[in-house]
Amino acid sequence: MPTAAAYIRVSTDDQLEYSPDSQLKVIREYADKNGIGLLENCIFIEDGGKSGKSMVKREKFLELIALSKRKPKPFDVILVWKFSRFARNQEEAITLKSMLRRNGIEVISISEPLPDGPFGDLIQRIVEWTDEYYLVNLSQEVKRGMKERAGRGEAVSPPPMGYSLENGKYVPDSNAELIKGIFFDFLSGSGYRALALKYADLGLKTTRGNPPDSRCIEYILRNPVYAGKIRWSLKGKAASKRKYNSPDIMISPGIHTPIVGQDIFDEVQKRIELKKELAVKRKPLESNAEWMLKGLMRCSECGSTLIRVNTGSPSLQCHSYGRGACRVSHGITLKKVNSAVLDYLKNLSINDSFEIDCNPEPKSDAFALDYNKLIEKERGRLNRLKIAYQNGVDTLEEYSAGKKKILESVAELERAQESVATQKKVFGKEKRTFCFSEAIASPIASQALKNKALQAVIKKIVFVKAENRLVIYFY
Question: What is the Cα–Cα distance from 83 to 75, expressed in whole angstroms?
């Protein structure tokens, strides 16, 4: 008696009668009727609505495919209610079914019987193409429907703060007055951070239940929904990436009650643009610059990292303070922190030692490359190419041409690796070994190397602003 596994999936567009229980029931009936033994330990049911567009997020499906590769084969057939349950991507479906056939396993759709022979294969390809077309067309129809709803001013996304959703329409809720206050306070001169702190104290919460921060306040002030408009991306996604002026964003009059007038909203946008112009003229943040204590400094109030900023002289400030999520400023000059840390550490007996180039190699992309990793990657490509040829995916000619190209790439990388190694012998001749305290105080050591030395022994350094002291935590 042939044996079978079953794969059951329900996607978000399925009807109620095609529930997992219903699919399993008809699969059992088909197996009994056709003399197939359904293996109880090989019934794979995908939890929740999962799309058949790709197998990446289908855990049970991946388990089934992994089991199907075993030798000897664990079963003879895979039973599905419809081929679309197996895959709606035709390329993926053809590849997987070919792989299964090489192990002697067939995929059978119990509701789509196919005739034997080449004609049956043709019908199956047509079914697979139809399934994929349905998925693509459904996506386009959903986008078209959302665009039409947005054009009519109807709700096309979950309600923002200040609104609830009733019968497909945004309705002002108990937070509407707080939202209105944010607009008027901003026009009165309050900044994002001050507004975040004020309205957090007044009880305003985001849709996730968190107090607002500066980014949240800006998003509120930028959202035309509060002026009675509906905003929707023509690409099918809302403006989640904050590209407020993107040409892909459509804005249309809404059917909901606005919280602020259009004149107020427009005035707010003018002030935001003015703030942006002024911000460009200020000295930029240097959070990406290399500095000795990078990543180690912490705020004693909220635990966030202190980042480097330019305020006259290089200084540190709590990352969350600038967003309004932390209420205590932890501003301190970088020079003061460096001096205090170095004075403390130079008297410690730490046995760790570090090798520093006294004649460092020049900055070059060639010196920074990990050639072993690149060569290994090319050899991995060659191995996959070989597998594709062995499985009949590529022809001998395709395999030979691809192999030649990859081997040439490997040879080129090996020549470059040898050249860099020769140059490094010259630049690395003068080296000295320093103890920990010498390494961080050495004038020839870079800020990045000093930071690496500190990271090796120090877990974090907490700046207690109220007491004006540093607390160093070692590993």
Answer: 18
**How do the pLDDT tens digits run along the chain, 475 residues long?**
899 999 988 765 444 446 788 888 889 999 999 999 999 999 998 876 555 455 556 788 888 888 888 889 999 999 988 877 677 665 677 777 778 888 888 888 888 776 565 645 555 565 555 655 555 555 565 566 667 777 788 888 888 899 998 888 899 999 999 999 999 999 988 888 889 989 999 999 888 888 898 889 999 999 999 999 988 776 655 444 566 677 778 888 988 999 999 999 999 999 988 887 766 554 444 445 678 888 899 999 888 898 888 656 788 888 888 777 888 888 888 888 888 888 887 766 565 555 544 444 444 555 556 778 888 888 888 888 788 777 776 777 878 888 888 888 888 888 877 776 765 554 444 455 556 666 676 666 778 778 877 887 888 999 998 888 899 888 7
State if pTM tops 0.85: no
Q: List beta partners, residue 45.
A: 8
Burial tier of 370 (Cβ tally within 10 Å: 0-12, 13-18, 19+): exposed
**Cα-based angle 139, 140, 141 (whole degrees, multiple of 5):** 90
Residue whose pair of structure tokens reads 């035309």 in the numeric block? 224
| Cβ–Cβ under 8 Å, residues 446 and 437 | no
Contact 80, 96 (CB under 8 A): no
- Sort 213 into a burial class: Cβ within 10 Å, 0-12 / 13-18 / 19+: buried
Residue 466 phi/psi, 5-degree rounding, is: -60, -30
Let me know: does 198 contact 185? Beta carbons within 8 Å: yes
